[in-house]
Amino acid sequence: MAAGTIRYWAAAKAAAGTAEEPYAAATLAEALAGVRERHPGELTRVLKRCSFLIDGNPVGTRGHETVRLAEGGTVEVLPPFAGG
């Protein structure tokens, strides 16, 4: 199990009520399960539309259970952005 930071952006930040929080998980799927447990409701709905970066690398279409998290890593939670 690795420990790191989850950073929320835009609508995810608003729904979580925080800009970041720690994770303790081996995979992205485990980290997101913890997020859903801590923040039931709106954030759970927002996560369905989000994309994710792990240490700056896009997850894309990979299964979240296959994405390993590193000790001291960062998960960026990126909801769809308007404009740009």
What topology does this entry show?
Elements: E1 2-8, H1 10-16, E2 20-25, H2 28-38, H3 42-47, E3 51-54, E4 57-58, E5 74-78
Parallel strand pairs: 1-5
Antiparallel strand pairs: 1-2, 3-4, 3-5
InterPro entries: Beta-grasp_dom_sf, Mopterin_synth/thiamin_S_b, ThiS/MoaD-like
Pfam families: ThiS (PF02597)
Protein name: Molybdopterin converting factor small subunit
Q: Can you offer a commentary on this structure?
A:
This protein starts with a strand and ends in a 6-residue tail after the last strand. The protein is an alpha+beta fold and 84 residues long. It is 29% helix and 29% strand. It is built from 3 helices and 5 strands; from the N terminus they run E-H-E-H-H-E-E-E. The model has no long low-confidence stretch (mean pLDDT 95). A 5-stranded mixed beta sheet has the order 2-1-5-3-4. This is Molybdopterin converting factor small subunit. InterPro entries: Beta-grasp_dom_sf, Mopterin_synth/thiamin_S_b, ThiS/MoaD-like.
How is this structure best summarized?
It holds the Pfam family ThiS. This protein is an alpha+beta fold.
